[in-house]
Design brief:
Elements lengths: L3 E2 L23 H11 L2 E2 L3 E4 L7 E2 L9 E3 L2 E2 L23 H5 E4 L3 H10 L8 E3 L10 H4 L1 H11 L4 E5 L8 H9 L3 E6 L5 H7 L6 H13 L4 E8 L8 H10 L4 E6 L6 H12 L4 H11 L11 H4 L3 H17 L25
Parallel strand pairs: 1-2, 3-7, 5-8, 8-9, 9-10, 10-11, 11-12
Antiparallel strand pairs: 4-5, 6-7
Helix pairs in contact: 3-5, 5-6, 9-13
Length: about 350
């Protein structure tokens, strides 16, 4: 494998995945030394592989997640958020959850056709479809591929309820589809804002839009009549937790109808990546950060148990909850969940969609 730079990426490592007992990839050190000597360190470019899945709806049975079905147009995410809990999924492809996750992307161009087929099945039971639950549906490659938009076109065509969770103001591009659906009670959007500090965001989530752009997106969605939620997620103790009140204030003033927060989660492969990131960017407080995370996770890097994994436990978790509740009350951020209509759904007409 060529020696490539990780500059501008979130992860500082690109270790071989091991959880699924895949064969370890070995390269000879002498060969790598020659490549570096002859060619220098190459810039890592983003590659895209077309994926041909047989189905597009992912079913969820987790009791602490408020949806039972979702769509993920992409595998991997160019935003490069170091804390992303979806990173381990790249190991299924014998790719690293590290830099590979950010630069070796998979797209599903047939997503809209597969969704059409799913919604056409006799007996289909309509319930809100969540987009953005694993990787961001509005990451940079959406600008070219427009797979998320094609999915929205099917959902609007069939009057099917949907939610979108994203870190990108690129969602505004599709207001022509989202706003009419929202006016019918069929759509809601959640914007995740982790930090308003550009210096923090530059390494924490290097290719995601700035926090101020996400706040502005909340404002514009609200003005268009789209129910919009503020997600202060994730909160990284000792790194971003001091910004909680400022983020809540910004989201509330922009018109967010409700909000929630989530402490950072560090699943199996994510924890060593996060530790390496801390050592690179915050060495003076790395031990303190991990100690605080473990105090909220029962002494472990991660708590995978239902319910507690979303909130944490112990004094630090209690403090975050109290601070968020007080900030929400102070700035008028609600807690009401938007209930989307299901009664307007109409199955697609014919074998082919009218929009194709």
């Amino acid at each position: 494998m060529p020696v490539e730079s990780t500059h501008g990426r979130g992860a500082t490592l690109n270790a071989t995945p091991t959880r699924f007992n895949l064969q370890e990839r070995l390269v000879e050190g002498d060969w790598l030394d020659e490549v570096e000597a002859l060619d220098g360190v190459a810039k890592r470019r983003t590659s895209v592989t077309i994926e041909k899945p047989k189905s597009i709806l992912t079913r969820n049975r987790s009791p602490d997640i408020g949806f039972d079905r979702s769509i993920n147009p992409y595998r991997g995410c160019e935003h490069g958020c170091i804390y992303c809990f979806a990173r381990p999924t790249h190991a299924f492809h014998d790719l690293s959850p590290g830099v590979d996750f950010e630069s070796r992307l998979f797209v599903k161009p047939d997503a809209a056709k597969l969704l059409h087929a799913a919604l056409s099945r006799p007996g289909y039971d309509c319930a809100p479809i969540a987009l953005g639950t694993n990787t961001d549906p509005y990451q940079p490659i959406e600008e070219r591929w427009k797979i998320t938009r094609s999915i929205l076109e099917v959902l609007v065509e069939t009057r099917h309820p949907f939610t979108i969770t994203t870190k990108s103001d690129r969602v505004l591009r599709d207001l022509d589809l989202i706003a009419p659906a929202a006016h019918q009670g069929l759509a809601a959007v959640a914007l995740s804002v982790t930090s308003l500090d550009p210096a923090v965001s530059r390494t924490l989530e290097p290719r995601a839009p700035a926090g101020r752009k996400r706040i502005e997106a909340i404002r514009r969605l609200n003005e268009a009549g789209v129910p919009t939620l503020l997600a202060v997620a994730p909160i990284v103790p000792q790194i971003t937790d001091h910004e909680m009140e400022s983020i809540v204030e910004g989201g509330a003033k922009a018109g967010a109808r409700a909000g929630f927060y989530l402490p950072v989660r560090l699943p199996y492969e994510v924890a060593p990546l996060f530790r390496a990131w801390l050592d690179e960017h915050y060495p003076e407080r790395a031990a303190k950060v991990m100690a605080t995370i473990r105090s909220m996770r029962g002494g472990r890097d991660n708590d995978p148990d239902f319910f507690s994994r979303m909130r944490g436990s112990g004094p630090w978790a209690d403090l975050l909850r109290t601070r968020f509740e007080k900030a929400a009350k102070r700035f008028g951020l609600g807690h009401n969940k938007t209930v989307l209509r299901r009664d307007l759904f109409r199955p697609p007409d014919g074998v082919q969609m009218r929009l194709f």
